[in-house]
Design goal:
About 40% of the residues are buried. It contains 14 helices and seven strands. It is globular and about 60 Å long. Helices cover about 50% and strands about 10% of the residues. With about 325 residues, the protein is an alpha/beta fold. The strands form two sheets. The protein has a five-stranded parallel sheet with strand order 3-4-2-5-6, with helices on both faces. The chain has a two-stranded antiparallel sheet with strand order 1-7.
Length: about 325
């Protein structure tokens, strides 16, 4: 079934899927990339913000040699993404430098746009997007650089995010429940604040749990926000056959993949998490199971220090 979007001009502006780590953004990425008009790589770019910050270091981007330097830096940072997650082009620096030069891409944002537009064209899609969760902290800057960009902020119960972060604690440098809670809160609160500032035309917020429970309703809302036609293919999305991808992406949507914290977190962990970020949980309509009294300043300081020391120990033990 396909539902036509409102009769407005179709946008070619980018779409960004953002959120706190381990919020289910990969599921939304695979759902949305099933849309015939939208190209989304299957990984995370990570290079937008560093390159935009460093633009002046690359000199005059009208020069072919400087475009090549940008692409080389992209590859140094995100080789796996550029080699395996762009499905419309091969990341050949010589060829792409020439193509972007011919397209007269003379700013960092134009070079990034040109690269993703070439990839979208290779997938016969009109519009490009990117899923890199931490860009939720930089939405205002991205909107300045990519006018008309639209952001979908996916929010998941922080207690489930914490469980998932603990499985990759060294990646996120998250070594205790209090720090996991504050980590989650920063992403949620900053993302929501920026969302209010950039407005409903550019910012759309959904909850992961609602996506699991009512995927058709939620994806229809996403398509309305994007002014794109809705199709059931977004819910019956093409599954990942790659072993390295999230295992749940090889299955239909799993409604039960929520509230794992109720059985997998220790009661003491639940109490610490809820006491650390009770207000943010309430604001996102997540239930509390404890009195959630605020933690004392010495207790907060202890857990911050614990995480800092654990991080330093890991970095000393396993230097890069």
């Amino acid at each position: 079934m396909t539902t036509e979007a409102p009769n407005k001009p179709r946008s070619t502006a980018p779409i960004f899927i953002v959120g706190a780590p381990r919020s289910g953004t990969t599921l939304l990425q695979y759902m949305l990339r099933s849309h015939p008009d939208i190209s989304l790589p299957t990984g995370e770019s990570h290079f937008f913000i560093p390159l935009l910050r460093q633009e002046e270091q690359y000199g005059d981007l009208r020069q072919l040699a400087n475009i090549r330097r940008v692409l080389e830096r992209m590859y140094q940072q995100s080789a796996d993404f550029l080699d395996t997650d762009l499905h419309g082009i091969d990341f050949n620096i010589d060829q792409l430098s020439g193509l972007l030069h011919k397209r007269q891409c003379t700013s960092m944002a134009q070079l990034i746009t040109g690269l993703f537009e070439l990839n979208a064209a290779g997938e016969n899609a009109r519009r490009w997007g990117d899923k890199t969760p931490y860009y939720v902290l930089h939405m205002k800057r991205l909107l300045e650089q990519f006018p008309g960009a639209q952001f979908i902020h996916l929010i998941r119960d922080g207690r489930d995010c914490a469980l998932s972060m603990f499985q990759r604690e060294h990646d996120f440098r998250v070594y205790n429940t209090f720090f996991a809670a504050k980590y989650w809160e920063i992403y949620i609160e900053r993302g929501q604040q920026m969302g209010r500032e950039i407005g409903p035309g550019n910012y759309h917020e959904i909850r992961y749990e609602d996506l699991l429970e009512n995927p058709h309703v939620i994806m229809k809302g996403v398509c309305e926000f994007l002014n794109e036609d809705y199709s059931d293919s977004l819910v019956n999305f093409k599954k990942s056959g790659e072993a390295g991808k999230t295992p749940l992406l090889q299955q239909p949507i799993q409604k039960q993949n929520q509230e794992k914290w109720r059985t997998q977190m220790q009661p003491a962990q639940i109490k610490i998490f809820e006491r650390a970020v009770a207000g943010t949980l309430r604001n996102c309509n997540y239930p509390l199971t404890t009195d959630a009294q605020a933690l004392s300043l010495p207790t907060r300081a202890f857990w911050h220090l614990h995480n800092r020391l654990a991080t330093r120990y890991y970095e000393w033990r396993y230097p890069r």
